[in-house]
Design a protein that fits this description.
Layout (H helix, E strand, L loop, with lengths): L1 H35 L4 E16 L5 E15 L11 H15 L13 H29 L2 E3 L4 E4 L4 H5 L6 E5 L2 E2 L3 H9 L6 E7 L2 E7 L2 E7 L3 E7 L2 E3 L7 E3 L3 H27 L11 H16 L5 H27 L7 H14 L5 H29 L2 H9 L1
Antiparallel strand pairs: 1-2, 3-12, 4-11, 5-6, 5-7, 7-8, 9-10
Helix pairs in contact: 1-3, 1-7, 1-8, 3-6, 3-8, 3-9, 6-8, 7-8
């Protein structure tokens, strides 16, 4: 029991650090977009619940830190409900009240009376801030830590595996997979892991010439150090490292920026690819994780990064660097999720704005309310399902059963 509690506590700090940074940057994206367009903002909150610290800036924005550090929000002037998109009758009543209270010229400061494109920019500001955070973090890591490159050279082929049937041999150097250049064995593993039961083509260098091989990764259950038990695609190859193969490359600022964009795009592309396979039934939903698994991964990543240090300072620094990498990946996922056309999410707002652009009037309040209820139900259902997966993955039920027996 003590070990379990200690393990849980070791995940909480890294989890709050990662989630807090991702969510704060997301909300700050909305905030910066609004302020750049001259839209009045009442409050910017980091965390929910009762404020443990609060202050106002010169523009009259109330900044606060809530006691529950699991999110945050931006409240625009005049917003009673941050998720609302008022219909024509609501807008008319709101305009009349503002004109009576503050004067006609004050109407233009309010979010809901701004041109449609400006409202869309503010809503999209959050997800794109997440993408920007990922680019910056990846670029920072490429400049400071660098990129370790170990060519995808084959050391051995597991008997009976997909690789053996395809004709892979020891010493082969995989240079291309499905038309994409492969720079490292890790890159090859990541690409194959997401393509269980998907036919793939590989270009390998063997004896000074290139050969094209075809293989279909098999779905295998592995126990990864970070993430625990996973079902992934596997070829059945073991990596070979020859003297001089391992290279650590550090990028200059311009190269790092380009690398940050490329890695952010790769994560986004992988996310979309996985979601597409999930929707079409070609991928299992067991890999969907919620906050518990994010917390577990945060703790494991921090511990793995710290183990490389030889002094306490180096261990802390290693843990933080590892967490930055996880934050970059998670930020892409949060940005993409928020762009999905689901009411309650930013993508749902953009969907309503698209309707408004076509019909020249906001969607009826009753339809919006129904859409938000459906969207909220979908999100809650997804969260419950992901949490159930987390509990199964983390063997919580087995642990509780042991306590009760």
């Amino acid at each position: 029991m003590i070990d379990f509690i200690g393990s849980a506590l070791s995940y909480i700090g890294p989890f709050l650090l990662v989630l807090g940074l991702v969510v704060t940057i997301h909300e700050f994206g909305h905030f910066l977009a609004a302020r750049s367009l001259g839209i009045a903002v009442d409050r910017f909150s980091i965390g929910f619940g009762r404020a443990i610290a609060t202050w106002k800036d010169k523009a009259g924005v109330e900044w606060r830190i809530g006691w529950l550090p699991l999110g945050g929000y931006v409240r625009f002037a005049g917003d009673e409900n941050a998720a609302s998109v008022p219909d024509q009758a609501d807008l008319s009543a709101m305009r009349s009240e503002i004109e009576r209270r503050e004067g006609v010229e004050a109407v233009g400061r309010y979010f809901h009376f701004r041109p449609l494109w400006q409202r869309a920019v503010v809503v999209a500001g959050g997800p794109f801030a997440n993408f920007g955070l990922s680019i910056v973090l990846f670029a920072f890591l490429l400049m400071t830590v660098g990129e370790t490159i170990l060519p995808a050279r084959v050391d051995g082929v597991i008997p009976g595996s997909a690789a053996e049937r395809a004709g892979f041999s020891r010493g082969d150097l995989v240079v291309e997979a499905n038309g994409r250049k492969i720079k490292s064995f890790l890159e090859l593993q990541q690409m194959v892991s997401m393509r269980a039961n998907v036919p793939m083509s590989f270009v390998v260098e063997r004896g000074g010439r290139e050969l094209t091989l075809h293989a279909t990764p098999e779905r295998k259950t592995i126990v990864a150090r970070i993430g625990g038990e996973q079902k992934v695609g596997a070829l059945g190859l073991r990596g070979l490292e020859q003297p001089g193969d391992r290279v650590v490359k550090r990028y200059n600022p311009l190269e790092a920026l380009g690398g940050g964009v490329a890695r952010t795009w790769d994560v986004l592309e992988s996310t979309v690819y996985y979601l597409g396979r999930l929707i079409t039934g070609k991928e299992t939903a067991e890999q969907l994780g919620g906050p518990l698994r994010i917390a577990q991964a945060s703790g494991q990543v921090a511990q793995a990064g710290a183990e490389g240090g030889t002094t306490p300072f180096a261990m802390v620094l290693g843990g933080l660097v590892a967490l930055l990498g996880l934050t970059a990946v998670l930020s892409v996922g949060i940005g993409f999720m928020n762009l999905l056309p689901v009411p309650v999410l930013d993508g749902g707002h953009l969907l309503f704005y698209a309707y408004e652009a076509i019909t020249r009037r906001p969607l009826a309040a009753k339809v919006q309310a129904a859409g938000y209820r459906v969207g909220l139900a979908l999100l809650l259902g997804l969260m419950l399902f992901a949490t159930w997966n987390d509990l199964q993955q983390l063997r919580v039920f087995k642990f509780l059963g042991g306590l009760l027996s």
